[in-house]
Amino acid sequence: MTSWTRSAPEMYGTLLRFRLRRDRIQLLVWALVLFLMMYAIVADVHTTFGSDVERANTLKLLMTTPAVLMLRGRPQGLSEGDFVTTTGLTFIAVLVGLMSTFLVVRHTRAEEERGQTETISATGAGRLTPTLTVVTMAVLANLMAVIVIVLACLAGGLPATGSWLLAASCGMVGLVFAGVAFLFAQIMPTSRSANAWSATLVIVSYFVRGVGDAAGAPHPATYTLTPAWPSWLSPIGWAQAALPFEPNRTWPLFVGAAVFLVLTAAALAIQDVRDVGDGVLAERSGRRGGSFALRGPFGLSARLQRGTLAAWIVSVVALAALLGGLSGVIVTQLSQAGPGVANAITEIGGARGTVIDAFANLGAIFSGLLAAAICVQGTMRLRQEEAAATADSVLATAVGRTRWMLSYLLVAAGGAVASLLLGGLVAGAAAGGKGGGFALWFGAIVWQIPGVLLFLGIVAAVFAVLPEATVAVGWIVYAASGFLGIFGSLVGLPGWAQKLSPLAHAPAVALPDPSYTGGWVMALVAVMLTAAAVLLFRTRDTKPVA
Amino acid sequence: MSSVIQAAALQKHFGKVRALDRLDLTVEQGEVHGYLGPNGAGKSTTMRILLGLARPTGGAVTVFGKDPWRNAPALHRRISSVPGEVALWPNLSGGGETIDLLVKLRGGDVKSADYINARAALIDEFQFDPSKKARSYSKGNRQKVALIAALARPAELYLLDEPTSGLDPLMEEVFTAHVDRIGAAGGTVLLSSHVLSEVEKVCGTVSIVRAGKVVESGTLAQLRHLTRTSISFDRDGLSESALARIPGAFDLAAGEGRVSFTVDADAVPSVLPALGALAVKGLQIAPPSLEDLFLRHYGDVLDPVGA
Questions:
Q1: Looking at the partner chain, which of B52, B55, B87 has a beta carbon nearest the beta carbon of A393?
Q2: What distance in Å separates the CA atoms of residue B169 and residue B108, rounded to the nearest whole number?
Q3: Mean pLDDT of A377-382
């Protein structure tokens, strides 16, 4: 028989087990995803770039136009391990970073928002113990990530030391962003904003080191590249600085660990002095009178999502501007490389067009993926409103099922279409005649619209049929499509697997002889799925989470 | 002219659980109808079906003679409702944005002077701060948002699902006064509650629901007939045999201090002469309360030993 009083460490252990239990499926999925992605990258390098000669040729081309490195990584040598690091490290690091930020916000600000922290803090657990268990959990989750990444590398036959360092630098990135998320969870009053800010910083740090790599100084003799200063601003840049497999430097790991400790300590210090339930940034006071815009279901949906929507649109436009602008840089770098090399590079596109064409095509797919997130998130909002029972509040008024559903679907679709139109305009303008021309970029980006709307149709259909699964299925479909569509070719997946992604069927307007069939078919399927979803929703009960 | 609400053999199954098990409910025009039952009896499920948010598994239901599932938006223009769990949008302000929005969505004109005055009066009566974001409201304040939105614009039917939960007694009084006002003006109200005193105070007719079935329904007067009036007086040395002569007395309990018993409601006049003959002191006659009625139906649930 245990005694009635439990010690603090016991309480800590209880909470930690409770949290791990709640997350066991999610963590397992992350472990599986990380293992498979890492293994796919290693296996592809092994088969496609098996010999030193093949790797040397590719690296030479990459280093002639470092701008292309933005979406890959920093060349650091010829060995298989080095090549894997160049192509895969940044991508895996982003995944680990996102895993960490979502995990932290889920257990801190989101719990606080739902009032669960209030319940836990009212027990003997105390003020800091609940957060300390999340710190432990973040460390454990990243440890898990490191182990599965190492296993994937070793399974692919890479040297042990380099594999450990590669995995550890990804884990370091995860910890830094866990610290970032801890801090945002203290500052932001809502879990939505805390999640948005931390996840955005992960993506921004990917592109910041991308700019560093793109503007770096290549050393063709050693197949290495010294990144420009922006890379030092990015934790992912620090991870690259560890240079796994070749020099194997460990000091960047300590930089990351120190940043994690400082950020987490700051978060705990804030937590210790603030009220449970408040953020550092207080909620603004609202309007006393109703606003003109807020007069119907569409106004409500737009009002609820305006912040998120604006952020997404700015992101798509910023990405498009960056990629369009880079295309000019690539052309400059090509011309400086001398006519011989330039021709050689242009030829690797072969039947699939020039390097610029390929770059514009990839840039358009990236823009499409980002815009698809607007559709996925906007459509999921249907389920979030239903679960919170606020959907019932609207449906108990003179607003019918169809109008309510369309108020969210049309706002999501409108946001996605607007972002791609604006993105196309900006990318086209930034690229100019030198970077492939306005029509090339604008067309390539705007033709992403049908595929992007297909995401909306898919999530809406899930919402109508399996409402409880909407959010999970939505993000899984999104992540899988993004991976298959963008990295499918990078990691050498078979064609049929790549074609599972809507992104793979967007008309490749930037490439020669594009086929538009995929675009029209996807547009048709999207409309049919959405119509079916609306009809099916009209036949089921609303299911708020009691 | 059909009833405002008519449900016959209404069924709602969630898997194997029968939330509503052939429930019959009739609410006539102008009634303030109490819908009484313990937690989990099926009150909220009934309300959700009446609002077209859930579809019955079987049986027939009409609101204003129409199917609430098929005609939800049109019917909702004539209905004001307060949900069992008030859910608000955390980042909208409670007053300006949420209340006005809900009224507008119901088809109301928030620019009309009537509405503006009614809203201002309600905000004042309920002592409500409309400018805060909904996130920061307590349970009682969230309830006030729903109540003000429901009461600020006249409706033909009010569907109120446990409308006073979270309100303090003063605010309950304010709410009661408004239901009285609606009843006096000929409005129809269906008010679900597990608080007997509240229903007794404002409702003319009552249905008692238990395990998905309406077990008792009628006017308060009719229902009172179903239970006995309790009578008590000082013992004051009266003998057992004298007490035994009181006609129609049930559950006679004679302690040292007080004597108490119950009689059928219509037997009260015939008991009075006997009490007069005994010259009783400190006489108290309590009419049957809904609580007695309620306990009669739920006695076995509330007190499984059987009192």
A1: B87
A2: 30
A3: 93
Q: Quick one: which of A33, A42, A34 has its CA closest to A153?
A: A42
Kindly determine whether residue B53 and residue A395, on different chains, have CB atoms separated by under 8 Å. Answer: yes
User: Alpha helices, DSSP H only, in A337-400?
Assistant: 339-348, 355-387, 390-395
What does the pLDDT average to over A280-309?
76
- The closest CB to that of B97, out of A283, A284, A291, belongs to A291
Interface test with A, best of B92, B143, B159 (most A CBs within 10 A): B92
Within 8 A of B130 by CB-CB distance, chain A residues are 288
Strand B157-161 relative to strand B79-82, pairing: parallel
| A468 Cβ neighbours under 8 A, 6+ residues apart | A543
CA–CA separation, A100 and A103 (whole Å): 5
Say if residue B282's pLDDT is above 70. Answer: yes
Helix (H, G, I), strand (E, B) or coil at B157: strand
For A330-360, the pLDDT digits (tens) are: 777 776 765 555 555 554 444 456 777 877 8
Nearest to A290 among B51, B74, B97 (CB): B97
Q: Tell me: the pLDDT tens digits for A41-92?
A: 898 888 888 888 888 888 887 787 776 777 788 899 989 999 999 989 999 9
Chain-centroid distance of CA A514 in Å reads: 28
3-class SS letters over A78-138:
CCHHHHHHHHHHHHHHHHHHHHHHHHHHHHCHHHHHCCHHHHHHCCCCCCCHHHHHHHHHH
Q: Which ipTM value was assigned to this complex?
A: 0.73
The pTM is what? 0.77
How far is residue A261's CA from residue B216's CA, in Å, rounded to a whole number?
A: 66
With 50 as the cut, is the pLDDT of residue B306 above it? no
How many whole angstroms separate alpha carbon A528 and alpha carbon A507? Answer: 20
Does A283 touch chain B if contact means CB atoms closer than 8 Å?
yes
B191 vs B137, higher pLDDT: B191
Length of chain B: 307
Q: Tell me the chain A residues in contact with residue B70 when contact means C-beta distances shorter than 8 Å.
A: none
Residue of A nearest to B87 (CA): A390
Instruction: Look at A119 and B217; give whichever has higher pLDDT.
Output: B217
Q: Do B93 and A389 touch (CB under 8 A)?
A: no
pLDDT of B114 reads 92
* Inter-residue contact A342 to A334 (CB < 8 Å): yes
* CB pair distance less than 8 Å for A544 and B81: no
**Neighbouring-strand partners of residue B231:** B261, B285
Q: What is the mean pLDDT of residues A281-289?
A: 64
Look over chain B and give the mean of its residue pLDDT values, rounded to a whole number.
87
Q: What are the Cα distances from residue A450, in Å, to A140, A369, A446?
A: 41, 12, 9
